[in-house]
Design a protein that fits this description.
Blueprint lengths: L14 E7 L3 E10 L7 E3 L2 E12 L5 H11 L9 E6 L5 E6 L5 H11 L11 E6 L10 E8 H13 L3 E7 L1 H4 L8 E6 L7 E6 L2 E7 L14 H19 L10 E4 L5 H12 L3 E3 L17 H30 L1
Helix pairs in contact: 1-3, 5-6
Protein name: MSHA biogenesis protein MshI
């Protein structure tokens, strides 16, 4: 099973879903086809869409399949049979490493990784679901790839729970991939996010891709950190500055000019101001996609589900544009 795999959305679907699976919470977001006047001008796959559900369920004792079952039962008024669903796993549920690209044909790389990663990840090779993707730019002389591994024992019960409700899984991806399409296209920004009861992470994204991904140390709990603690803010700023320097230095990219937070801190605005003072860069809370703002949760706990839908919409649009270009080339040949 290639858990980064994704198939094109069925254009006949009247609902499309995304499921975010975090370490302590699962979230379900649903788009429904509707007349244009009822939508937020969200047009995709020949239809207008509106967000009709954005729900969450606490995960008990790491039983993700049970939480998924509960949230689907809670929302059984929605139509699940044969509807497409995109699954997004949080960073807590995967392990990611960067390695030199094996000198193999592309189709042979993923199968080979299961055994070559044994010394790099904690998941046993026999329990490993693994896939890889290329970085946007190569920062070292050797060509490298990002490899993502997940536990088969953890993932397959989730898959079975979704199939029980007749849902068609369009893909299973990890959280880092959704951040590239969270900001509006063409923006270059550092995103700092934190899911409930998980470590904070930063992503530097540009042009729909995540260039830098790092999980912050446990001491930097962005949901509880005190923006009035000057020493803590100085240390946090140093951590962030290292990633900014790596992006503009070894990666040879234009400097990031803004930072956005996706955190549930009671003093979020003060936190934005404190980080901005330390780094000399504008910092603000990250806005949701316009189509999601009527249902957004104020604590960003729905980030994976809303981000999963945004990822599907953006990637299908990119595929559509590529197909149009190919058709135009054939017509002009």
């Amino acid at each position: 099973m290639s858990f980064l795999n994704k198939f094109k959305m069925l254009t006949s679907a009247k609902y499309m879903y995304a499921l975010g699976v975090g370490d302590s919470v699962v979230t379900l977001a649903a788009l429904q086809a509707c007349p244009r006047e009822e939508s937020q001008d969200l047009y995709h796959a020949g239809s207008y869409w509106r967000l009709v559900e954005n729900d969450s369920m606490v995960v008990q004792s790491a039983d993700y399949a049970e939480a998924i079952t509960e949230i689907l039962l809670k929302n059984k008024h929605l139509k699940f049979k044969k509807a497409p669903i995109q699954v997004v796993l949080s960073s807590e549920l995967v392990e990611q490493v960067t390695i030199d690209r094996p000198e193999l044909p592309p189709s042979d790389i993923a199968p080979s990784l299961q055994w070559s990663l044994r010394e790099l990840v904690s998941i046993p090779a026999t329990d490993m679901l693994v896939d890889y993707f290329d970085p946007p730019v190569q920062a070292t002389p050797n060509k490298q790839i990002h490899v993502v591994a997940a536990s088969r024992q953890a993932v397959m019960p989730m898959v079975s729970a979704l199939h029980e409700f007749g849902l068609k899984i369009t893909g299973i991806i990890h959280a880092d991939l959704i951040f590239g399409h969270w900001p509006a296209q063409g923006r270059r920004v550092m995103l700092i996010s934190q899911m409930p009861q998980e470590r904070a992470q930063l992503n530097i994204v540009a042009n729909g891709r995540s260039f830098v991904t790092r999980r912050l140390r446990h001491s930097y709990d962005m949901n509880t950190i005190d923006p009035g603690d000057t020493e803590m803010m100085e240390n946090l700023a140093l951590e962030l500055q290292r990633s900014l320097d790596f992006y503009s230095g070894p990666m040879r990219q234009v400097q990031v000019s803004e930072i956005e937070l996706l955190v549930d801190n009671e003093r979020a605005q003060d936190l934005c101001q404190a980080i901005s003072v330390q780094l000399g860069i504008p910092v603000k809370l990250s806005p949701y996609p316009e189509w999601a703002r009527n249902f957004q949760k104020e604590d960003y706990s729905d980030l994976l589900a809303i981000g999963g839908l945004q990822w599907v919409l953006a990637n299908d649009a990119l595929q559509d544009r590529a197909e149009l270009k190919a058709t135009a080339r054939e017509a002009n040949a």
